[in-house]
Amino acid sequence: EIETAFVSVAPIFGGGRSLVLDERxxxxxxxxxxxxxxxxxxxxxxxxxxxxxxxxFAQTMVRVKDPVKTEDFYVNKLGMRRLASLDxxxxxxxxxxxxxxxxxxxxxxxxxxxxxxWLSSRPYPMVxxxxxxxxxxxEGFAYHNGNSDPRGFxxxxxxxxxxxxxxxxxxEAGVKIVRKPGPFKxxxxxxxxxxxxxxxxxxxERDEKAAGPSAGLIGPDPVYAQTMIRVKDPQKxxxxxxxxxxxxxxxxxxxxxxxxxxxxxxxxxxxxGSTSQADRARWLWSRRYPTLELTYNYGTEKDPNxxxxxxxxxxxxxxxxGVVVDNVRQVTESLKGVGTPxxxxxxxxxxxxxLAFVADPDGYWVGLTSRTGAAPAQAxxxx
Length: 383
Hints:
The protein is α+β, with helices and mostly antiparallel strands. The chain has helices at 31-46, 67-77, 112-119, 163-172, 234-243, 277-285, 328-337; strands at residues 13-14, 18-19, 56-64, 81-88, 93-99, 126-132, 153-160, 177-183, 189-194, 200-205, 223-231, 247-254, 259-265, 291-297, 318-325, 342-347, 355-359, 365-370. The chain has an 8-stranded mixed β-sheet, sandwiched between helices. The protein has an 8-stranded mixed β-sheet with strand order 8-9-10-7-11-14-13-12, with helices on both faces. A two-stranded antiparallel sheet has the order 1-2. β1 and β2 form a beta hairpin. α1 runs parallel beside α5.
């Protein structure tokens, strides 16, 4: 059961022209999909699309029980920096933002709108941990990590130097190791650990080794590499995220395990789809930007009653992926015009930046926020 989650997905353009697909997902090459593919090519040419110029994969939000334990894990164990926290007394919630960044973050004494403005101008991915006050005092309270029924969200993933050393350090510090380090098929060596709320973190060993001081317990220069969600129909899911300006950059097939992985990102990178899966994996693990990994179990699209759990109804857990755009109202209207379900219209707030939520084909929420300041000149890559 665990092995079916060990993937990272992104469809691949063979030689930049056609998708390399397993026979079970040949239906992806439908007319609708090819239109979407051409649409992306046009968007890439003029730097625009339904999400506007240079959208940013800004955050992955999960709900957490105890912010003290959460901060210890992401800062002291994984080596991230806490950039900011925002308190919302009316809803009795706080949110904490962590990232791999050298920046100090906004002044802790600044207002929520000031913090939000600073955060929405960052080009790099963050982990947003949402805390409902007093849950840490409830002994029986727990969030759902998405990896048991009802399934949905899978994991966050990091590329690092040495997964064996990292897992030994984490286990010694009391961190739960979900999957011991070792090879997985032909796509490299991986391991899984769990945060205090049992959300899975995939650790992926890269070929190119970084030098420098260790980040937490996992070695130097970790890169936030992926957020994985399970999808019912890859044709629909890929088309949706292409509308948001993402680009398919890789795809792994595991026919004996009856699943495939699709990887999408905000990038100008291209990959030769004629290379081996092992070579494509090595290339992918060397990237220094976040990807959205879509895990597709063969045949789910044929079951009219099949659905994944988005984490925003009971049992609660994963919340959403966040994208920063030029103009959230404009983008929301554009998405509405192509039939995208709008969960929440853009709303101004005295406490934070305007925020909208839309739903992807599986019902996962995508949060949209307007950036402050100028858009980045190019797609993000960790320095």
